[in-house]
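in:
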């Protein structure tokens, strides 16, 4: 739509506009500022951090480049160009000095650990992680009280946040980008933003960087690209695909829209509670190299009472949802949605079965109980005093449920899961009543799809040509097109943010015209 030109076409003009303040947006803003650009960083939510701040906090780095390159090719899939993969790999190898430089601002303690990757591809031993162990005087619950997650994600965000503040980068919360502003030839010259109802036209001389995350909270986009449904978000309601929609309106091609990082989890019994609750995270492992020796207290049954999966896959938080994605054309249903987590009394006592991971001050975070009894009381878990009662709770044939439990317990007894090859160290019986059952649903931690991009993080159109003035960073249009590398999105946020910020800042300033179009 045309922009009203009866008044000056822009309310403000900046060199670079960064949309979204998580890890990728922060890294983009810092890089552009350090390269000499005037930067405006906006975030539509009342608090910064996005999904990033909920992360475990390990940032994947490379310690042996040749081996890592081979592994990365297997995980990103065939459609990521070599030069895009190469530049990300090169950036991952430089993350330790990058973080040590950021740490000079607030004295953060940085450590690097060797950490094997998740799948048995060549080069899986070529990786490590950078971690922000601590920051003097920082308490996450005090500074970011809206966040529930794992310990070190807030540490990493605090480091980024302090670097943005130290540079004096203009940052506006509660400010959403709604449309991109295009020039006569389709070049991006800014964006229309809204802050508490106030609309502004922000002009950009050098570029707009979309770092607005994915579409974890956009059911309409999920219905377009995913067969599996419903999928429950677990971290934020802010990621509604804004960057995808704006980029599409400017002509962007999309990739990896099918791929999301997620597991299975619980649905709160209060329909007003907007988030799923992830199943307990157990340590990741690598087939053929590093099997876990951690007891998993549950098994998973389908709606007919049959066990159908290895509940403890190498990276359950990434691929756990995939085994639920089966459509039965004969019955016209998804027989594994919901599926059913089943434990016995001993398993109920072992550890909390669920966890909360959110960044949302408008919601009182659900706190899972240590002994799972609160969840029995509120109905997330239901108690059955016999196999027959258990079968009734999942509306399945008692004989089928009894056979599934008997077969599982026999496998535990001999120490081999012949049906689904679950790691031996994780086997745990389900035989001592009462039993407890909870509905399991697909949950999404983060999506990987979005606009396709080149090695300079420039957004590409359907012909593979860069859209002038438009960049992206982070999980928006991620390279992870097949399997996820644990801690890889965090690395990608910082690597691609640096690339996008530097490249945008290096552009010749655009001459902003008086006639404009909003995409």
């Amino acid at each position: 739509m045309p922009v009203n030109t009866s008044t000056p076409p822009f309310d403000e003009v900046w060199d670079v506009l960064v949309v979204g303040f998580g890890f990728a947006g922060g890294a983009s803003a810092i890089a552009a500022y350090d390269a000499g650009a005037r930067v405006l960083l906006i975030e539509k939510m009342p608090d910064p951090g996005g999904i990033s701040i909920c992360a475990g906090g390990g940032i994947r780095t490379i310690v042996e480049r040749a081996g890592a390159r081979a592994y990365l090719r297997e995980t990103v899939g065939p459609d990521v160009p070599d030069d895009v993969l190469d530049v990300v790999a090169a950036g991952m190898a430089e993350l330790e000095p990058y973080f040590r430089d950021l740490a000079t601002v607030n004295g953060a303690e940085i450590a690097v650990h060797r950490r094997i990757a998740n799948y048995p591809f060549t080069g899986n031993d070529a990786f490590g992680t950078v971690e922000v162990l601590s920051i003097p005087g920082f308490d996450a619950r005090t500074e970011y009280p809206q966040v529930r997650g794992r310990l070190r994600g807030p540490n990493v965000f605090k480091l980024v946040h302090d670097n943005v503040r130290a540079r004096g980068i203009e940052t506006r919360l509660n400010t959403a980008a709604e449309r991109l502003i295009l020039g006569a030839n389709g070049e991006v010259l800014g964006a229309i933003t809204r802050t508490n109802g106030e609309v502004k036209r922000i002009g950009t001389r050098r570029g707009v960087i979309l770092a607005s995350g994915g579409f974890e909270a956009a059911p309409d986009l999920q219905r377009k690209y995913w067969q599996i449904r419903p999928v429950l978000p677990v971290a934020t309601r802010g990621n509604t695909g804004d960057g995808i929609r704006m980029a599409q309106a400017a002509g962007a091609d999309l990739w990896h829209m099918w791929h999301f990082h997620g597991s299975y989890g619980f649905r709160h019994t209060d329909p007003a509670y907007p988030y799923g609750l992830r199943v307990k995270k157990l340590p990741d492992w690598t087939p053929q190299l590093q099997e876990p020796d951690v007891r998993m207290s549950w098994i998973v049954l389908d709606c007919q009472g049959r066990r159908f999966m290895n509940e403890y896959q190498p990276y359950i938080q990434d691929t756990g949802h995939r085994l639920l994605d089966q459509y039965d054309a004969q019955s016209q249903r998804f027989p594994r949605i919901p599926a059913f987590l089943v434990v016995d009394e001993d398993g109920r006592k072992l550890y909390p079965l669920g966890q909360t991971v959110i960044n949302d001050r408008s919601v009182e975070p659900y706190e899972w109980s240590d002994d799972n009894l609160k969840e029995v009381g509120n109905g997330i878990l239901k108690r059955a005093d016999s196999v027959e009662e258990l079968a009734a709770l999942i509306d399945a044939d008692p004989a089928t449920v009894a056979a599934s439990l008997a077969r599982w317990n026999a496998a535990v007894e001999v120490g081999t899961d012949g049906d689904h090859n679950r790691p031996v160290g994780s086997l745990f019986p389900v035989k001592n009543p009462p039993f407890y059952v909870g509905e399991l649903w697909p949950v999404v931690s983060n999506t990987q799809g979005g606009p396709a991009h080149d090695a300079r993080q420039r957004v590409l159109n359907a012909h593979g040509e860069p859209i002038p003035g438009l960049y992206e960073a982070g999980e928006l249009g991620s390279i992870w097109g097949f399997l996820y590398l644990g801690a890889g999105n965090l690395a990608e946020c910082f690597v691609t943010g640096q690339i996008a910020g530097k490249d945008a800042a290096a552009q010749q300033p655009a001459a902003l015209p008086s006639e404009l179009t909003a995409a």
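note: Residues 1-6 have pLDDT under 50 and may be disordered.
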